[in-house]
Q: What sequence folds into this?
């Protein structure tokens, strides 16, 4: 049983969200001696709560938000009618998306932080440099990798940014998709390297190594080998006796006093009772969709457009998971359903090159395409039979002989791509529903098309007898929620400062994917966590110096 | 078999280096009990007539042509349970969709009494006549789910769907996993 704080007693920090960022912040603040309450919308699950049920976990995305309870509207532009659709998804349990993610764990490159300067302006976008550089984040990436438990091989990627040390764990064993990818990259003069993964290749800090069951993406790890915040940093936070995780608790409003300082958060508990938890400071780690939503609903006389929104940038510049896959068929069984999803990556096409005539680049990985039922519906090439004996024969022929190459592309920040509130529809708790407005910048689409050709070259060089698939015209849904509470030095153009503290409210921080100024090449978790370590360090020093200004 | 107890070898691998093997043991026992306990003895949502007709179509989507198909996998029990639970919003889609398929059958095969009573080749002709409809796509999706989804949902009996495609649901595997990584391992040890 963890510590319980009284709502009427102001705790030092109240953290909203327990995912990639929230788990880290809770651990850092509580181990530094502060009293912390964490509010999490979803349940507190344990290993015994998980199973290998594809339909519940993968098809129905059972560990994520449910739009029947929290409706989401989507439109490509503000002039179109919005339709109900799960345009944004996020992990909804203690540990958040780190519980069900595939566990790709890429650091950004040095160039990611000043791409605007390197490349120049991109018309129709809010393209900008970050207010910090890779060197500012490096120690925090390193700490994240150690605390969380990351497997990888330092120096194997010739394009990676400088590292202060090796990964704490060696890479996971290569799969057939990785061997074929290696082979193709050698042929083409590219540089594949072992995928950095938040999955333990060896026992680490009391947790066991991955047993290669293959149920990573969309599933919770029954072996505690996937390095979610649930099994890594959150137990460290709870062990301090100063951190209370409140599951099933959904924040409704951040409250402020007359001076515009945050005083606490009103939330619905598991039984939908309204509770007001007082706090000396609030840290919003609710993700790149829920964090701006909570700021927008927390309107007041002082902040009529939403809390900490004097810039008008809250919710704007939503960036998307611009990822697509292509498939290749091979002669012999690959058995890609075994072990982790990804074992090899190449960053040769990561950098944007002005010679291509558009902004953008991407990382490519070799991966398992899909679980059995999903594969039978969407895995075969276009034109394949859809029923009958030949259909039945082909699903058996293709399932174990297919691998996927995934391309992870840039998504430019565009102000009209955003999170806003529905004027009339409310969710099950009476909180305004979210409206997502998004369409790709033309350069994002050019990047997809260009990278698609590079990926076809790779699968061709790997010896695929058939190659199919590619980017679709509809953006679908995104789980990489980036850009909506932008970080910057200029309070007129950004929501938080370079330490994730809001420009407007000294005792309010926002740290999660919403801080991203640019999208990197997707795989945002490592950078979210590095930002969370950096912000936590600042919170601790400010709180100790009385700088949170009570 | 997917729901058989895990082997000693798997067990040893699964617990290697684990701080709390008891917890993992509990997790697996839980998962396997759930899988073993989930075989519906009877229909819960559809009538016997409806089920027989739907099953006749599912059996053309994934036929029993020498190896188990939709029928042996118990796909109809998957559909029956899904329509009473997480796919309840499609109960009416099935009512309307099947009514349309029945009138199509009457037009195509005057004097016939039921889809299940048609010959296999006539059933194929019937399916081909509505294979482009949204209802067929739903039926196809449910059939694939019932054939290849987890047996806890009532289909994929004894893992026959998984056996067909060469998928195994296990607590652990050890490398090499496939042909090409096995080959690479061999090359390295040379």
A:
């Amino acid at each position: 049983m963890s510590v319980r704080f009284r709502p009427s007693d102001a705790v030092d920090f109240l953290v909203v969200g327990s995912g990639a960022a929230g788990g880290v912040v809770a651990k850092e603040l509580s181990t530094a001696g502060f009293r912390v309450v964490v509010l999490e919308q979803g349940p507190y699950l344990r290993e015994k709560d998980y199973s290998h049920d594809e339909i519940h976990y993968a098809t129905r995305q059972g560990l994520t938000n449910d739009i029947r309870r929290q409706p989401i509207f989507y439109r490509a532009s503000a002039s179109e009618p919005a339709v109900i659709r799960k345009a944004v998804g996020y992990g909804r349990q203690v540990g958040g998306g780190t519980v069900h993610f595939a566990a790709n764990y890429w650091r950004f490159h040095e160039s990611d932080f000043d791409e605007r300067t390197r490349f120049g302006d991109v018309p129709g976008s809010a393209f900008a440099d970050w207010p910090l550089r890779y060197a500012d984040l490096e120690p925090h990436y390193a700490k994240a990798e150690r605390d969380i438990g990351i497997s990888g091989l330092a120096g194997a990627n010739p394009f990676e940014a400088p590292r202060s040390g090796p990964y704490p764990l060696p890479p996971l064993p290569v799969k057939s998709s990785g061997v074929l990818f290696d082979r193709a990259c050698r042929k083409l003069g590219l540089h594949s390297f072992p995928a950095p993964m938040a999955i333990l290749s060896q026992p680490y800090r009391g947790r066991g190594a991955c047993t290669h069951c293959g149920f990573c993406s969309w599933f919770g790890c029954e072996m505690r080998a996937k390095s979610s915040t649930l099994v890594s940093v959150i137990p460290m936070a709870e062990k301090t006796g100063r951190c209370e995780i409140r599951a099933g608790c959904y924040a409704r409003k951040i409250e402020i006093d007359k001076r515009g300082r945050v005083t606490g958060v009103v939330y619905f508990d598991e039984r939908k009772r309204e509770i007001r938890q007082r706090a000396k400071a609030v840290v919003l780690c609710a993700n790149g969709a829920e964090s701006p939503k909570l700021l927008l609903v927390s309107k007041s006389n002082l902040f009529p457009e939403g809390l900490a929104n004097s810039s008008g940038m809250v919710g704007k510049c939503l960036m998307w998971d611009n990822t697509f896959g292509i498939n290749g068929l091979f002669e012999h069984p690959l058995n890609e359903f075994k072990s982790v999803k990804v074992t090899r990556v190449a960053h040769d096409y990561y950098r944007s090159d002005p010679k291509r005539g558009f902004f953008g680049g991407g990382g490519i990985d070799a991966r398992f395409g899909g679980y059995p039922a999903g594969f039978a519906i969407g895995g075969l090439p276009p034109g394949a039979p859809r029923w009958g004996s030949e259909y039945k024969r082909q699903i058996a022929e293709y399932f174990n002989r297919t691998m996927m190459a995934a391309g992870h592309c840039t998504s430019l920040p565009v102000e009209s791509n955003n999170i806003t509130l529905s004027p009339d529809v409310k969710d099950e708790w009476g909180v305004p529903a979210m409206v997502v407005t998004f369409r790709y910048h033309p350069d994002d689409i050019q990047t997809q098309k260009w990278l698609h050709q590079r990926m076809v070259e790779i699968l061709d060089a790997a010896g695929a007898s058939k190659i199919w698939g590619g980017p679709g015209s509809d953006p679908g849904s995104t789980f990489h929620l980036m850009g909506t509470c932008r970080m910057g030095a200029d309070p007129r153009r950004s929501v938080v400062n370079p330490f994730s503290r809001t420009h407007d409210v000294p005792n309010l921080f926002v740290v999660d994917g919403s801080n991203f100024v640019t999208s990197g090449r997707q795989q945002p978790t490592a950078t979210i966590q590095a930002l969370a370590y950096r912000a936590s360090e600042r919170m601790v020093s400010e709180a100790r110096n009385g700088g949170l200004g009570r | 078999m997917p729901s058989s107890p895990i082997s000693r070898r798997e067990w040893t691998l699964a617990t290697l280096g684990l701080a709390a093997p008891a917890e993992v043991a509990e997790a697996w026992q839980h998962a396997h009990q759930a899988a073993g306990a989930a075989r519906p003895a009877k229909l819960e949502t559809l009538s016997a007539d409806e089920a027989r007709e739907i099953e006749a179509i599912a059996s053309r989507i994934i036929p029993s042509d020498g190896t188990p198909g939709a029928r042996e996998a118990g796909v109809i029990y998957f559909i029956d349970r899904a329509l009473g639970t997480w796919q309840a919003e499609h109960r009416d889609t099935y009512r309307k969709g099947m009514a349309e398929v029945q009138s199509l059958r009457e037009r195509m095969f005057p004097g016939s009494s039921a889809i299940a009573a048609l010959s296999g080749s006539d059933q194929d002709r019937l399916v081909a006549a509505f294979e482009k409809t949204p209802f067929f796509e739903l039926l196809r999706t449910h059939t694939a789910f019932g054939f290849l989804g987890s047996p806890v949902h009532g289909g994929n009996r004894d893992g026959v769907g998984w056996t067909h495609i060469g998928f195994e649901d296990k607590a652990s595997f050890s490398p090499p996993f496939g042909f090409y990584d096995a080959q690479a391992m061999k090359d390295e040890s040379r």
Notes: Confidence is low (pLDDT under 50) at residues 1-25, 32-37 of chain B.
